[in-house]
Amino acid sequence: DLGGRRRPNGARNPGSAVYAGTGWRGIFKSSDGGSTWAAANSGLFATSFYTLAIDPRNPRALYAGVSGAGLLRTTDGAASWSTTPILYDFATVAFDARNQGTVYASTGQGVEKSIDGGQNWVQLPLAPVDSLAIAIDMQNPDTIYAGGLKSSDAGATWVKLAGYAGSLGALATDPQIAGTIYAGSFSGNDGVPMTSVSSGVLK
Question: Rounded to whole angstroms, how far apart are CA atoms 79 and 9?
Answer without folding.
Answer: 19
